[in-house]
């Protein structure tokens, strides 16, 4: 894709002396999302409460480590913390996948010396020692392992700075393809809860979901209504399809799939993977073992830019590794975090820093503080223009859908009018995703309404969600005790009503800049009492004040399947009064630039939309 690397969207009016000034108190939370890996040092209620108040958006439970009981305790404590803080938090379950680990380890650490040889073997009967490393893989045949290839062995969630990681070079592969002799490049002591093995440019033929993964999904993922499943070592689109089929089969239809790009196969096939997954995640720790250091930034910028242009959420790992043991990041790490924000990343994933680090809460706070400063320097209008130009939307006859037109109009209006907030009404979350795609500088308050569908969703007793999980989701929603902003509860009346508001709201946390809330449809129409309640919530959170302008985007939704919205798509501009209530009639902006007090599509279409494929 020509010119895919694009540019860095940086602008600032700051002067060097201003860097010495104390930062003002910010009422608007950072737009960049933060994923924290929950582990032994961070799974207690107190620590989780602090991390939620700091700004954690998604909690990650990595099944490469620990048993199911550990993760169940962690997620139960997360629910308690969410309820106590009245904070919405999504959950991510990270699978083991085709990951390779060292087996049959002794109780004591394994010491390796630079220059020695060690046998890497698939023979599971061998005992791990300083001369032999048995791995959990059936055979080296077909993997592409050759003399000269690199092999990395390190502890789970390695940072690269420990002395517990070994860099090996393949010297000879046995004729039986069951073992390979490797030369150790550095002296080290292999220790830690688990030793992972990464073979450079390996073709891994193991299934994307291991049997232990399938068991964990059924026993942990489904009952706990996990929002995202992260597929470790995603290699191709078929991996995503297979995982989707399995999730649907066991009743996890609403769970989104995150494709982790962390090996050469995934990098080569990332475009086809991007078309089928819901979120992309660049795992730089594992990827760094496959890509030359001097080329890593190219892979990163290329992946981020293509995800940005496609409107696909994209996350990056391994940012402040030194904060696993130190209270401050290095200057290079701090700059790395800022550059990720400027390059358009939706969010950042913390691994060892919050899993086993000594400063889990401080680390989350530091990363988000850096993100906030970078966002202040992010040229959102130049970014918007670049995405529009790439898509050809500035041409005379653009090939643009109604929903995309609504999104671009809302962002353009908010930018031109210097609005303080964008309010979005959505049922599936797609409207929020499309607006977030253009990275507006305004926070996107997303009001999630429930959907009615007699066939698309399974009944509640087949969904596998436990009552505890359902109660926790309700308690975690912002305003759970406020009649104006609640998780909707609907009853059946001849048709199967399935409330997906809590699921969609949590999943909207994946998008940069989006602040989701659930609304009770019994309040009335979206443009009436629900809008008023949303503005009241925004005022309470410090997002708006009297005199501010607010852009409201509502998707086209005249359809029996989605009866909650009573008008076609529209973008409205409101001015907030001193008491936080919108005065007079709203101004509706159409794509021709005219202002009218009406409610139609941005491009002036007078017809309602009945095609579900174009709804959001």
From TrEMBL:
The enzyme's E.C. designation: 2.7.1.40
Catalytic reaction annotation: pyruvate + ATP = phosphoenolpyruvate + ADP + H(+)
Pyruvate kinase C-terminal domain segment(s): 404-554
Lineage of producing organism: Eukaryota, Viridiplantae, Chlorophyta, core chlorophytes, Chlorophyceae
Pfam families referenced in this protein's UniProt entry, alphabetically: PK, PK_C
UniProt cofactor(s): K(+)
Name assigned to this protein: Pyruvate kinase
Protein family according to the UniProt entry: Belongs to the pyruvate kinase family.
Family annotation (NCBIfam families): pyruv_kin
Naturally occurring in which organism (per UniProt): Tetradesmus obliquus
